[in-house]
Design goal:
Elements lengths: L1 H36 L5 E3 L2 E9 L7 E10 L5 E8 L2 E12 L2 E6 L4 E3 L4 E4 L5 E7 L8 E8 L3 E10 L23 E3 L3
Parallel strand pairs: 2-11, 6-12
Antiparallel strand pairs: 1-2, 2-3, 3-8, 3-9, 4-7, 4-10, 5-6, 5-9, 10-11
Bound molecules: copper (II) ion.
Length: 193
């Protein structure tokens, strides 16, 4: 009987240990799933690779918002990207930024933004960006904007831009010092086209 009892106690401890181990495994799994849910996807389209798409939340009353990403051309020929439409605004454009007389000006890229073979172009705050013009609703942190991008060679792709904080400067969540909002910024003027 004693031996049997000792075996039973040992078995209880072992099964408790196994249950604890399983619980830990489930918890890790749940955390990984939650972490993945908020992460941006990468996109492959022919020779074009798009990574870390994201957009910035817009302040109240903003009429435009911006999206960012890194585009890599792994092919041997140049390609050009335009934005066809998005689900947050009435018009989607690819904008470039240039300094003119000490003022940053942004304007739509004529004929599309060129991505040279082997080149990796990062659209980021203060630089080139996808412009969502005439927002139908504000870009809210935690939500996302879906835009349809068209590459001259690689074709068309729908990209989801997770919306990060208003002050975000990069998709890794680091806060940025330089503010560059799509509209209303005194540092920036937009050509009316
Ligand atoms: Cu712009």
């Amino acid at each position: 009987m004693l031996n049997c009892e000792a075996w039973f106690r040992g078995w209880s401890r072992r099964s408790a240990g196994a249950a604890l181990a399983l619980t830990v495994i489930y918890l890790i799994g749940a955390i990984v799933l939650v972490a993945r849910a908020g992460a941006a996807s990468d996109y492959d389209l022919g020779a074009i690779h798009i990574s870390q798409p994201w957009a910035r939340a817009t302040p109240k009353g903003a009429t435009a918002g911006a999206g960012y990403m890194t585009i890599t051309n792994k092919g041997a020929a140049p390609d050009k990207i335009i934005c066809i439409s998005d689900d947050a605004s009435t018009q989607c454009q690819i904008h470039t930024m240039t300094m003119e007389g000490g003022v940053m000006k942004m304007r739509p890229v004529e004929g599309g933004l060129e991505i040279k073979p082997g080149e990796s172009v990062t659209l980021k705050p203060g630089g080139d960006h996808v412009m969502f013009r005439d927002l139908k609703q504000p870009l809210v942190q935690g939500q996302s904007v879906k835009a349809t991008l068209k590459f001259e060679r690689a074709g068309t792709v729908d990209v989801d831009y997770p919306v990060l904080a208003i002050g975000a400067a990069a998709p890794d969540g680091k806060a940025g010092g330089t503010m560059m909002q799509g509209s209303g910024g005194s540092m920036m003027q937009m050509d009316k086209r």
